[in-house]
Amino acid sequence: MNPPIRVNETPAPRALQVLRCMRLGLHLLWGAATIASVYPLASTSVRLQLKRRWSRQLLRMLGIRLDVCWNNAPAGSLVVANHVSWLDIYALNATHAMAFVAKADVRAWPLVGWLAARTDTVFLRRGLRADARDANARIAALLQAGQDVAVFPEGTTTDGSTLLDFHAALLQPAIATGRPIQPVAITYHDRHGRRSGAAAYAGDTSLRECLAAILACRSLVVRVRAAPPLPTQSGHRRVLALAARQAVAAHMALSPHPQPNPPHRMPAGEHPLQADVATT
């Protein structure tokens, strides 16, 4: 039985919501200025430190507390996580800065595409095998260089009460390079510790509605739980995808079995980190 998804019933004062929104806008502008001026001159380690600090500050500005339990996985791991919200990216970066895989459409988005392209994002055009091979090669290069790369193998978002099948093809770069797979569960909770759907960017929820729900929370906790890393030597990607999914489901306190008809699937093409692949 999956735990119920709850949303904080008492909204934050309107003045606090406005203040959070203003601070978020200024923080995004500051991030763009930092990327334009500092990133070209900074080493990889400095860039990752800046990304982690910026993401932690963003969560604090939104009144979100980060609750982390992270294993000491080797550098250059492929992080596979469930996907609930655009906040997942910042929760992971605030925990342990990394590169991400995103659909190619994001590159053309105003400001967001520019920021993503300059922060080690790997873009993937869905349905194109040649593009998938190029993306896998870049992911493999990042892993071999000791940089963690995150993928959301469900291919879309849910409200956090269910977990979809994992696309096995996204695990291929880790298998090809012999790098470990790090399963990670992300869940959102209210101030009483109950599951919250306030951050969910799924179904028919628009980005504006999702942001408004987050701003209205008096407090929100994002829990990031890492399972033990999975070795990839001599492993088949479908077997590894199932093992990773079971590990994430266990840390989300969900059933380890796939849900055949997920109730909150985001329409295709709407989310920046939905990266469909040519084959599973």
From TrEMBL:
<dbReference type="GO" id="GO:0006654">
    <property type="term" value="P:phosphatidic acid biosynthetic process"/>
</dbReference>
<feature type="region of interest" description="Disordered">
    <location>
        <begin position="254"/>
        <end position="280"/>
    </location>
</feature>
<keyword id="KW-0443">Lipid metabolism</keyword>
<dbReference type="GO" id="GO:0003841">
    <property type="term" value="F:1-acylglycerol-3-phosphate O-acyltransferase activity"/>
</dbReference>
<dbReference type="InterPro" id="IPR002123">
    <property type="entry name" value="Plipid/glycerol_acylTrfase"/>
</dbReference>
<dbReference type="Pfam" id="PF01553">
    <property type="entry name" value="Acyltransferase"/>
</dbReference>
<protein>
    <submittedName>
        <fullName>1-acyl-sn-glycerol-3-phosphate acyltransferase</fullName>
    </submittedName>
</protein>
<feature type="domain" description="Phospholipid/glycerol acyltransferase">
    <location>
        <begin position="77"/>
        <end position="189"/>
    </location>
</feature>
<keyword id="KW-0012">Acyltransferase</keyword>
<feature type="transmembrane region" description="Helical">
    <location>
        <begin position="28"/>
        <end position="50"/>
    </location>
</feature>
<keyword id="KW-0472">Membrane</keyword>
<keyword id="KW-0812">Transmembrane</keyword>
<comment type="pathway">
    <text>Lipid metabolism.</text>
</comment>
<keyword id="KW-0444">Lipid biosynthesis</keyword>
<keyword id="KW-0808">Transferase</keyword>
<keyword id="KW-1133">Transmembrane helix</keyword>
